[in-house]
Structure formats: C-alpha cells, structure tokens
Amino acid sequence: MADSIRQQVINKIDERLKTIQIINGYETDAGKNVFHYKENPFEQLNLPCIEYRDISDSPEYLSFGLFLHVIMLEIRAYASGVNADKTIRKIRADIEKAIGTDLTWDGLAEDTRQINVSQDIDLGHSEQKNAGTLFSVAIEYVSEGWSPYSY
Amino acid sequence: MPGDFAANDLAVFLNPRDLGNTATFNNKDIKIQFVNEYEAITLFGLEIENAGPMAMAATTDITGIKHRDTLVIDTITYYVIEIHDDGTGITTLLLSKE
User: Are A138 and A113 within 8 A, CB to CB?
Assistant: First the structure.
C-alpha cells in the first residue's frame, strides 16, 4: 500500500534523525535512539535520545485545486550526566544541522521552517541530572484537494 | 513535642541495627535513614525515569553541611542537592549521584 505524502515525509524525518551519529560527522550519537510518539518514560540507559511527533497537518487552499499543507513537527531530545546541559546544546545543534541538509525532504516538501518556542532547553536533577530540548518545525508540502496521496 | 521525639524516639529510626543506615560524612560515620524511591523527571511534557534518593539525619550530626557536600552510602557517593531542616532535630538531605 502506498504511503500518504505526510507519511512519506515522516519516514524521511525518521531516517534523517537516525543519521545523527558521530560516525556521520555529528557531535553526538543521539540518533542511535530515535523514537516516534514515545508513550512511556525514557530509560536512563537510552539517553541521549531523540523523540519526534507530527502534532498536526493543516491544509490551506492555494490555487488551481492545490492545497498547501503545514506539518507541525515537535522534536524533543534528552541527555543525562554531569554535563547534560552542554550535551543537550550539542544535540540541538546536531538536529538543526541534520534538518538543514535538505529542507525539501528529497523533494517531498516545499520548505522547512524553524518555529520559535518560548523555552527550548530545560534541566531536571534527582539521582541523575537530565536535560531536555524542544525543537519546533513547520514542514510545508503541496497536494491536490482531498488527495493526500498525490501532488 | 519535637523535643521529646528528638530525645527519645529519633535513635530508633536512625540506628543501623534498627531502621537506619550508615553514611560517611566528612570522614565520619553518621546514622541516617536512607530512602531511594522512583521519581520521574518531566521535561517538555515527557518523563525520564529517575530516582529521588534522600537521607534523614540528626541535624546535630551534619552541622555545617552544604550543597555539593558528599555522603557515602553503601560505597556510593551522593552529592547533597537540597537541605531541608524541619526544626524537629531531623534534617532531610536530597541527594544525587551527579
């Protein structure tokens, strides 16, 4: 069965985030633990990690029967350790670099924009020290009206 | 009354032969009550598994203790990250491995 355009974009995002590894020229190995809509708590052993979710896909009429869709993507990442804050900044930079390698996701999208959030890094400290970051992105793609499988 | 508790009952909770544990603080063994229960950290709406180790000690045994001082409990070094003196003769220390 064919994937919708939205699903194809998500597949590309998953592939891209998983490339975030030192062996691929990034500063962290956060891409070794990538989750989509993780429903239960993260294990300390799985940190650093990245979690992403496509929270909405809003279509807007463009012209000639075409619609501009905007996928709102939230990417979270988490790290642990004494230097968790420094690590999370590196992961954040790695995510930005990875997305920036191709803003069209192999031609599926028209553009990808970073959305500002009021807070993008936070820390928590109990037995372990943890840091997290939130990265918000809008991905725009075009489809025919009521036709999620075709451009 | 708090004074009575501190004078008569506190020792049972802290004595390693009863309910307590031993910790090393400033190269000295002190009696504590150690608790280490599950406690998730929530960041950006998602949870990370964690624990909230804490030690309760007679306030007089840890005079001058401050953040980042260490307690060694069962060979594990913990750093003090919070100090709660409740005024009854007991001080609760929130601990971290980092």
Answer: yes
